[in-house]
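TA notes, week 10

Several of you asked for a full example with nothing omitted. So below is the full record: structure tokens for the whole chain, then the designed sequence directly under it. When grading your own attempts, check the secondary structure regions first.
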């Protein structure tokens, strides 16, 4: 059987999966990234994870034709270099060249949010859709755009940074010299920022994280509800720009913050209906991602299959 291996490299976890041509996961490995070990240490852990997934699949090493890997960006998928990623503390890491040497396999690189979208477009919530926009609401906010089953990369491979859409020009300063970007309102760190501004603290013993405030909102805490209403409103502001520019047929939400569901989506829809052209909302579908923590690895595997066919 011919297979590929997809790898989802995150700031917290590495997920590797052996995947066949139909998208079936035959074997998987998940382990902590341990970014404190630096680029060399994390790359060694990626190699270990790939070998573990291969072992768990029961498939011989020779059956794996290539490896696809998704990383936080910005990155250059054409040169195979991670340019900069604050979650890992990497700058200009030639990840493709290093892994090729360590694995003896072809290696293909893409932005992790793009690959999440590609996975969902292939066998998940976006299957059969022409234009798929995937918005990942996690530690940060990422975006992926799939057109006719392929990633839209832009001219130099750094498109789809939805989290950096400006939703309030007078908002707080952000990295890279910008301010008031979407990520500061609807990411996990953004939710915590809004909660602090509202004077909220998590219940005794609960961690200072977005999910703690989500639970408070679900329990009816008024201040927590206001936090999610503001985050959802800003998500609507940011998505209005995306819808007018991209005209997707479906928008898919993934990531831990998306688990808040209607706490975010109701104020988001209210804002979209107020701001967007009716023509852009007509027939537009909003869905939650289906593939769970396999999403990025499956998308990376799809990238590998597509890249092999191009070669």
């Amino acid at each position: 059987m011919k297979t590929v291996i997809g790898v989802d490299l995150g700031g917290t976890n590495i997920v590797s999966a052996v995947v066949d041509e139909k998208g079936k996961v035959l074997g998987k490995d998940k382990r902590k990234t341990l970014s404190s070990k630096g680029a060399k240490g994390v790359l060694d852990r990626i190699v270990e994870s790939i070998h573990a997934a291969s072992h768990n699949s029961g498939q011989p090493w020779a059956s794996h034709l290539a490896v696809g890997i998704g990383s936080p960006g910005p990155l250059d998928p054409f040169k195979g270099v991670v340019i900069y990623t604050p979650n890992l503390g990497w700058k200009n890491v030639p990840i493709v060249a290093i892994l090729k040497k360590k694995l003896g396999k072809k290696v293909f690189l893409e932005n992790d949010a793009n690959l999440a979208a590609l996975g969902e477009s292939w066998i998940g919530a976006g299957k059969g859709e022409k234009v798929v926009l995937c918005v990942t609401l996690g530690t940060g906010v990422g975006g992926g755009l799939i057109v006719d089953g392929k990633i839209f990369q832009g001219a130099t491979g750094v498109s789809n940074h939805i989290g950096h859409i400006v939703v309030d020009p007078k908002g707080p300063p952000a990295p890279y010299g910008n301010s008031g970007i979407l990520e500061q309102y609807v990411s996990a760190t953004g939710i915590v920022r809004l909660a602090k501004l509202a004077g909220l603290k998590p219940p005794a013993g609960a961690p200072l994280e977005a999910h703690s405030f989500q639970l408070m909102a679900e329990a009816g805490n008024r201040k927590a509800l206001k936090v999610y209403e503001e985050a959802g409103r800003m998500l609507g502001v940011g998505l209005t720009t995306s819808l007018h520019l991209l005209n997707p047929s479906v928008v898919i939400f993934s990531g831990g913050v998306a688990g808040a569901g209607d706490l975010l989506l109701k104020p988001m829809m209210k804002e979209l209906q107020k701001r967007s052209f009716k023509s852009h909302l007509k027939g537009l579908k909003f869905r939650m991602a289906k593939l769970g923590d396999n999403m990025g690895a499956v998308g990376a595997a799809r990238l590998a299959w597509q890249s092999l066919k191009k070669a």
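The chain has two domains: 3-112+293-310, 125-289. Use that as a sanity check on your answer.
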